């Protein structure tokens, strides 16, 4: 990247500021161009970088913002004839600024696929570390810059200043490309980390059609999140049994006598189920056993999903671990209309629906609570539920749409969060992405 900065501009800066001030202003300009390049990549460059490999254009743009200015700044100083110590100062300052701007952007805004948000970084400690470590790459890159300038001076005359910057451009591209490869290779080889769940302590109740239901105790939790709905306290005064798995095609067939699913398999979750179909299944199963089966309320669903956690997912906040816990739109998904949300870094192994229980359970023993299929809830949907504290809420008395929770095999990672909400325009809506999970009231 060659930035056109006129000689008059430098003369004006030198007349009023010392060398450090000039370096600061130039670095800000460089970072500005880096941010502009990132925006271009985000909005019009997605398809250029789309590939089956676990690489995403937001990672590329983030690397561009963080590292390209760092490599360019000492080179520009060297090619302007500045001293080695001055180049080191430029390198340190740009490294420091670019890293912290990148960290601020990724931690403050929920940038897709960027896992720097997982870092719980104390600001004071982080600044100190960056200030100390910044000198090391500054020294290295400045030394390389001085050497490259001498090499360029031997091959290019002074009136061909643009060509003299070729080593700078090539080196910056090499370093950034190496960064991409190291990052993506690390993601490919990242070991699966699963939070252990003591299933021996989970109370499980079998029923007549082979279902297993898990006991969910009464309690209180914080419903919602800052990203979706206002966080408010919800108290559930009664415990209930929740399906340990989503209703399978085999189980649905036993009760209803049909299997409407698009993707066939006895152990696959039943889909293409409307809210009305799910309610009818609960009614018939209840009649067979003399018990009260039903759909969970939205509050019950989130309470069971969270399982005592307060993080985005029942396993924590790390988006990069979702593929280990659920089936969502990642590299295995071949739907052409989901390129904008597909996570190409990870592969959960399933293009469409996955057999129930294919992923680890949440802390209360519920499987497939994140992804696989959207799950119907009993409530009517309202755009924003009340932010006030509530006890045993059941949603509005009337409405036009019913609530969906959990995300599905074709969903973006944020749709699979514990607090994420969706709706269907009509209770009769059917889709190959919608199924359900039952709850059973205790006798």
The CATH architecture of the largest domain: Alpha-Beta Complex
Q: Counting H and I runs of at least 4 residues, what is the number of helices?
A: 12
* Total domain modules: 2
| Nearest-integer average pLDDT | 73
Shape: elongated
Terminal CA distance reads 71 Å
Low-confidence runs: 1-7, 37-61, 106-128, 157-166, 172-193
Task: Count the E strands.
Answer: 12
Provide the helix percentage.
40-55%
CA radius of gyration is 28 Å
| Main beta-sheet annotation | 5 strands, antiparallel
Query: Regarding CATH, which class of the largest domain?
Result: Alpha Beta
**Oligomer description:** single chain
Helix and strand pattern? HHHHHHHHEEEEEHHEHHEEEEEE
Strand content: 5-15%
Could you characterize what this model shows?
This protein is elongated. The protein has 443 residues and is α+β, with helices and mostly antiparallel strands. The protein has two domains: 7-188, no CATH class; 199-440, paralog of FGE (formylglycine-generating enzyme) (Alpha-Beta Complex), CATH 3.90.1580.10. It is 40% helix and 10% strand. The strands form three sheets. The protein has a five-stranded antiparallel sheet with strand order 1-2-5-12-6. The protein has a four-stranded mixed sheet with strand order 10-9-7-11, with helices on one face. Strands 3-4-8 form a three-stranded mixed sheet, with helices on one face. Mean pLDDT is 73; it is low at 1-7, 37-61, 106-128, 157-166 and 172-193.
């Amino acid at each position: 990247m060659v930035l056109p900065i006129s000689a008059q501009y430098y003369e004006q800066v030198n007349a009023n500021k010392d060398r450090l001030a000039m370096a600061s202003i130039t670095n800000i300009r460089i970072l500005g161009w880096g941010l502009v390049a990132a925006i271009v990549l985000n909005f019009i460059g997605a398809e250029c970088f789309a590939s089956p490999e676990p690489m995403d254009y937001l990672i590329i743009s983030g690397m561009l913002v963080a590292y390209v200015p760092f490599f360019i700044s000492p080179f520009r100083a060297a090619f302007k004839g500045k001293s080695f110590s001055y180049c080191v100062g430029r390198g340190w300052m740009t490294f420091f600024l670019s890293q912290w701007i990148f960290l601020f952007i990724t931690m403050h805004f929920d940038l897709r696929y960027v896992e720097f948000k997982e870092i719980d970084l104390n600001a004071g400690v982080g600044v100190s570390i960056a200030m100390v470590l910044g000198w090391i790459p500054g020294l290295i890159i400045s030394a390389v810059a001085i050497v490259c300038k001498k090499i360029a001076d031997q091959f290019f005359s002074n009136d061909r200043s643009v060509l003299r910057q070729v080593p700078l451009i090539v080196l910056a591209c090499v370093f950034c490309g190496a960064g991409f490869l190291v990052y993506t290779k690390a993601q490919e080889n990242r070991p699966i980390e699963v939070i252990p769940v003591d299933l021996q302590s989970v109370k499980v109740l079998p029923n007549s059609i082979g279902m297993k239901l898990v006991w969910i105790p009464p309690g209180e939790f914080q419903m919602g999140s800052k990203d979706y709905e206002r966080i408010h306290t919800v108290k559930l005064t009664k415990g209930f049994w929740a399906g340990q798995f989503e209703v399978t095609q085999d189980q649905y067939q036993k009760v209803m006598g049909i299997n409407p699913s698009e993707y066939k398999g006895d152990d696959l979750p039943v889909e293409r189920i409307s809210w009305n179909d799910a309610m009818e299944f609960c009614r018939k199963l209840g009649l067979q056993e003399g018990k009260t089966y039903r759909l969970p309320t939205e509050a019950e669903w989130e309470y069971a999903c969270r399982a005592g956690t307060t993080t985005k997912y029942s396993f924590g906040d790390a988006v990069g671990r979702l593929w280990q816990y659920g089936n969502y739109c990642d590299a295995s998904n071949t739907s052409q209309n989901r390129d904008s949300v597909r996570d190409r870094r990870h592969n959960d192994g399933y293009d469409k629906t996955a057999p129930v229980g294919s992923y680890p359970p949440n802390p209360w023993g519920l499987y497939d609570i994140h992804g696989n299929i959207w799950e119907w809830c009993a409530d009517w949907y309202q755009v924003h539920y009340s932010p006030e504290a509530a006890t045993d809420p059941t949603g509005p008395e009337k409405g036009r749409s019913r609530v969906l929770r959990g995300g599905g095999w074709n969903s973006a990672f944020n749709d699979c969060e514990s607090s994420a909400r969706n709706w269907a325009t009509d209770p009769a809506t059917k889709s190959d992405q919608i199924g359900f999970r039952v709850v059973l009231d205790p006798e």
